[in-house]
Specification:
Length: about 350
Amino acid sequence: MRRRRFPGVAAWALAALSAPAVAPAQPCAEVADHLHIEARLPRSGSLWQAARNGTTLWIARSGSALESVDVTNPADPQPIAELPLSTNPSGFAIRGDHGFVAKSTPDFLSGELLTVDLSNPASPQILATTGFPVVGNHLKVVGDRMYAAGDALRIYDVSDPLTPTLLGSYTGPGFIARFDVEGNLAYLPSFAFGIRIVDVSDPANITLVGGTAPLGEFLCVDVVGNIAYAGNRVAGLFTYDVADPANCALLGFTPFRENDVYETVHVEGSHAFVTNAWVGCDVIDVSNPAAPIRTGRVRLGNGADGLFVDLPYVYALEPADLWVLDATEPSSVPPVVHFDTPGEARAVALDGDIAFVAD
């Protein structure tokens, strides 16, 4: 519940709503069914991470399995096969016809990295097992490198998928959430410690080069060009200018709404697609990074933990269900003006161009 800073009723006169020069205003728009549900595929266990290889969507889920799903027709996804694992996977990434699965050992005292042959979706096979830190929740492959983050950032050479080789690591304060890599820089959201930016050009000597101030708890980030789009546990989506990592500048943010917990973000063109842990999936117009506008939301039964975007489709991972969403027209909703009041707006009345809000 949003904290009330001013209890009771206060009369707020929001003068001249049609006037464009009101500085505190920030645009916001929403239509409840704007992201249309195309298909639903019930599964067992919680679906955590997904990646696509051709017409196959691979899903790492609890219940100790890696599953393949045929999405040749996104409106009718069909399960193909599953690869049993001894414990739940905590991270998953794809490089060509090889998949990498991070998981703990059965005794939960150490970790393993599995190299899986994905060339035949009907019969995935474990090719190799490599010792791996037990805490490594997020994997990302860029070229011949695999980045693994959790208690630290670790970089592996996976040019030979059967023998991943550790090149270097970086440890900072806090746990690293869903991170991103752009060029020679890695962007590490770290809950209460903001987003740290490190230079990974030399994996044996990873260096901190900048970052953002802590604002709430950052759970994910996607970097496109010089803009970082960061999802927050308590305050929606933030946008930052990261052209100069040592002097990151906050550009804008979506107006806060109760229960906005953004755990995954993916930016495609002028839109950001985010999973909301309590609600489902949101689409945000970021054509103007200084004023991101929420333009759509689809509510799923138990929220959503992860997503994979392949426009015009968005694959959302809800605990126990794979949802296929149609985002053909994510920008068709015209913006309106949003005003944030100090407390909780309870009622509004209009008198000409003046709105009186009971707050």
